[in-house]
């Protein structure tokens, strides 16, 4: 039976009340909507249009095999960017104030070969609530047994080398999503603390129907239309997903599995010794927060602190509210973790993988069990 997690209410939870009041004041004083603006719609059109263009060019049969392979890999990158920039905001209800617009744009998640219904359960509900809590946040259960991202997991001899093989394994994440993960999660009886034993009938139809359509559009149709061997289509499909998976895996992991982020364990009563918003600050880190390229490509996921505190605010506004969140965290004596660049975040992730692969010992800080390396506030 899964322990029921409860976050401790304390006077420090006033941090989130204060932060929310200041963020609300920013939008009110500037007469701004927290949803998409013109720039955000421009990003959506760019990535969706680029995806459609690449797919059409591949099926046009106008290019050689190597050019088509390159376009297939670029198509995978565009798919990941649609996930970051369009699907993610829409599925959080952040893209538009109109639910039907969010539902429509959230359907773009099917273009990744993934199921939006399952994503909303595993990500919106479970990950955002129980971030980095071992046994509850399934995002830190990547390749269980092979990769040790949870400090509570058994340490095996091969983990000593995981910093070398884990990052390449991220490239397989998208293929797993398309052929395995959605099915496993859909039929899993419980996800985190959520009963997952029953679903609306339409979701069964959506799951299997969308998967069949995806296989038809990205495997069967190219085999029929293109003047290439069937196995070359399969190679292109695999390479597309390796590119997509690597981009997706790195962006998500660099926000929660880097030096400084904690992996808190509840006590025997299931209590986490901090309020929910405080928990988010201890388990989340930004990377490359001042990079315009990272902001454009990653859809605000390089500013994960702001996203976890305000998931219903469109990511186009994160640069503006970052100073508010950081200033308030400093006033309350709370950590605000960030890596200055993508490269520094990647190096920090590499070092933490190495430490998790060699250190079985944990120590307790303020009632939360954490990895020994997770004691710094800011990683530069």
Portion of residues in beta strands equals 5-15%
Q: Quaternary state, please? A: single chain
What summary fits the major beta sheet?
2 strands, parallel
- How many distinct helices? 14
Structural class: mainly alpha
Average pLDDT over all residues: 89
Give the tally of structural domains. Answer: 1
What is the distance, rounded to the nearest whole angstrom, between the alpha carbons of the first and last residues? 40 Å
How many β strands by DSSP?
Answer: 8
- Nearest-angstrom radius of gyration? 21 Å
Poorly predicted runs are: 361-380
Can you write the helix and strand succession as a string? EHHHHHHHEEHHEHEHHHEHEE
Q: How do the strands of the widest beta sheet line up side by side?
A: 1-4
Q: Write down the overall geometry.
A: globular
What portion of residues is helical? 55-70%
Structural commentary:
This protein has 380 residues and is mostly helical. It has one domain. The chain is 55% helix and 5% strand. It contains 14 helices and eight strands. It has helices at 14-29, 38-59, 65-91, 99-106, 116-129, 162-169, 173-187, 201-225, 230-253, 276-283, 292-298, 304-309, 318-331, 342-356; strands at 6-7, 190-191, 194-195, 271-272, 286-287, 338-339, 362-365, 368-371. The strands form four sheets. Strands 1-4 form a two-stranded parallel ribbon. A hairpin with a 2-residue loop joins strand 2 and strand 3 (194-195). It starts with 5 loop residues before the first strand and ends in a 9-residue tail after the last strand. 43% of the residues are buried.
């Amino acid at each position: 039976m899964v322990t029921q997690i409860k976050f401790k209410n304390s006077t420090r939870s006033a941090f989130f009340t204060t932060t929310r009041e200041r963020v609300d004041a920013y939008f009110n004083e500037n007469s701004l909507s927290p949803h998409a603006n013109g720039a955000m719609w421009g990003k959506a059109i760019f990535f969706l249009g680029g995806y459609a263009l690449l797919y059409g060019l591949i099926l046009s049969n106008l290019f050689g095999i190597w050019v088509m392979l390159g376009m297939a890999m670029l198509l995978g990158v565009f798919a990941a960017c649609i996930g970051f920039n369009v699907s993610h905001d829409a599925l959080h209800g952040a893209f538009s104030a109109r639910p039907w617009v969010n539902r429509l744009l959230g359907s773009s998640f099917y273009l990744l070969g993934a199921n939006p219904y399952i994503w909303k359960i595993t990500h919106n509900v479970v990950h955002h609530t129980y971030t980095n809590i071992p046994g509850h946040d399934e995002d830190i259960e990547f390749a269980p047994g092979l990769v040790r991202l949870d400090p509570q997991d058994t340490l095996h001899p091969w983990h000593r080398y995981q910093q070398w093989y884990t990052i390449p394994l991220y490239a397989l994440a998208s293929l797993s999503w398309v052929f395995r993960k959605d099915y496993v999660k859909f039929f899993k009886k419980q996800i985190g603390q959520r009963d997952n034993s029953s679903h609306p009938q339409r979701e069964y139809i959506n799951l299997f129907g969308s998967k069949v359509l995806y296989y038809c559009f990205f495997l069967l149709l190219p085999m029929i239309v293109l003047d290439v061997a069937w196995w070359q289509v399969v190679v292109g499909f695999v390479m597309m997903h390796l590119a997509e998976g690597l981009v997706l895996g790195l962006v998500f992991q660099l926000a929660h599995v880097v030096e400084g982020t904690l992996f808190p364990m509840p006590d025997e009563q299931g209590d986490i010794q901090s309020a929910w918003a405080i928990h988010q600050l201890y388990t989340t880190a930004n990377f490359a927060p001042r990079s315009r390229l990272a902001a454009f490509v990653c859809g605000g996921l390089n500013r994960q602190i702001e996203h976890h505190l305000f998931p219903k605010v469109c990511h186009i506004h994160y640069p503006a509210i970052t100073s508010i969140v950081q200033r308030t965290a400093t006033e309350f004596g709370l950590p605000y973790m960030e890596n200055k660049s993508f490269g520094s975040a990647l190096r920090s992730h590499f070092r933490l993988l190495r430490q998790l692969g060699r250190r079985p010992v944990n120590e307790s800080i303020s009632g939360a069990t954490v990895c020994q390396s997770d004691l710094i506030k800011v990683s530069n």
